[in-house]
């Protein structure tokens, strides 16, 4: 199984590579804690990433969709919208050992 805090630690520095981007990990927003919030240089854009771990490859699709629902249900876009960012992408990423699936939706 993939350790989600470890994945946040690995992904956050990769995202910080882009000059002018603000990266927040395990950040309180809305009614919970988003795994990763990104504020790109473009002041209208924002990105939310929710990471999930699954035991079976058959669960990847369902868990990705659940990650997107969690982003919406817990209003993880609140901080980005309060910052004036309305072009927001939500990513649900599910890991199963060495494989992953990514789904994205515009909020």
Element pattern in H and E: HEEEHHEE
In whole angstroms, the N-to-C terminal distance is 29 Å
Shape: globular
Task: Provide the spatial order of strands within the biggest beta sheet.
Answer: 1-2-3-4-5
Instruction: Provide the residue-averaged pLDDT.
Output: 84
Q: How much strand? A: 35-45%
- What class do helices, strands and sheet pairing give? alpha+beta
Q: What level of helicity do the residues show? A: 25-40%
Describe the structure.
This protein has about 110 residues and is α+β, with helices and mostly antiparallel strands. The chain is built from three helices and five strands, in the order H-E-E-E-H-H-E-E. It has a five-stranded mixed beta sheet. A hairpin with a 2-residue loop joins strand 4 and strand 5. The model has no long low-confidence stretch (mean pLDDT about 85).
Quick summary:
The protein is of the alpha+beta class and 107 residues long. 30% of the residues lie in helices and 40% in strands. It contains 3 helices and 5 strands; from the N terminus they run αβββααββ.
Characteristic terms for this protein:
five-stranded mixed sheet, alpha+beta, globular, 3 helices, 107 residues, 30% helix
List the helices and strands and how they pair.
Layout lengths: L3 H13 L5 E8 L2 E8 L5 E9 L6 H14 L4 H5 L4 E10 L2 E8 L1
Parallel strand pairs: 3-4
Antiparallel strand pairs: 1-2, 2-3, 4-5
């Amino acid at each position: 199984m993939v350790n989600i805090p470890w994945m946040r630690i690995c992904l956050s520095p990769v995202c910080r590579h882009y000059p002018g981007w603000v990266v927040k990990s395990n950040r309180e927003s809305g009614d919970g804690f988003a795994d990763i919030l990104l504020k790109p240089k473009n002041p209208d854009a924002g990105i939310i990433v929710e990471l999930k771990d699954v035991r079976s490859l058959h669960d990847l699709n369902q868990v990705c969709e659940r990650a997107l629902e969690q982003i919406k249900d817990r209003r993880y876009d609140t901080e980005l919208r309060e910052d004036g960012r309305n072009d927001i992408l939500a990513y649900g990423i599910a890991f199963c050992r060495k494989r992953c699936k990514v789904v994205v939706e515009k909020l």
